[in-house]
Design brief:
Helix content is 53%, strand content 13%. By secondary structure, it is of the alpha/beta class.
């Protein structure tokens, strides 16, 4: 694609599961890829080596970490064309057993993290008049799950944020 800028993507929570599959897919499709990880350093380094992607440590619930990750990815990739908000946490618990810490952790990572990443990349996308944000959510954000009220609530919020931002 001579003359066209290379497509770039930042994938949050990219070291395992769905995130890892996306890193592999986008890298094989010719994208310049950066991804974040929090708890899976060994897997992140292995994936970066295998795909040529850039692994960046970041806690999605930390505004400082998110801003650092976006700045680093943007600098190394020459901007961010696509953001995929994939980082998330999930756990099973009866509603009566939920603690405020469990509730807040799910909201911080699954919802606030997507807000922070989106807020950080949008100015660059607006200035280039180009970009995409993809938020990975769950059917439990639509239907709810009795043993995942905290998870379902955060994912429902992400669905609402996605609709409003679009």
């Amino acid at each position: 694609c001579k003359g066209k800028p290379m497509k770039t993507v930042l994938i949050t929570g990219g070291s395992r599961g769905i995130g890892k599959a996306m890193v592999e897919l986008f890298a094989s499709a010719g994208y310049a890829v950066a991804f974040t990880y929090k708890n899976s350093e060994k897997q992140a380094k292995s994936l970066a080596e295998a795909t040529g992607a850039i692994a960046i440590y970041a806690d999605s619930a930390s505004e400082a970490d998110v801003n650092y990750a976006v700045a680093k990815a943007s600098d190394l990739l020459g901007g961010i064309y696509c953001l995929i908000n994939n980082a998330g946490v999930s756990s099973f618990s009866l509603f009566t057993d939920l603690t405020l810490d469990m509730w807040n952790e799910h909201l911080r990572v699954n919802l606030t993290g997507a807000f922070l990443y989106s807020k950080a990349v949008i100015p660059g996308m607006v200035s280039k008049k180009s970009g995409r944000i993809i938020n990975i959510t769950s059917m439990w954000g639509i239907t709810g799950s009795s043993c995942e009220v905290h998870y379902s609530t955060a994912k429902a919020g992400l669905i609402g944020m996605t609709k409003a931002l679009a």
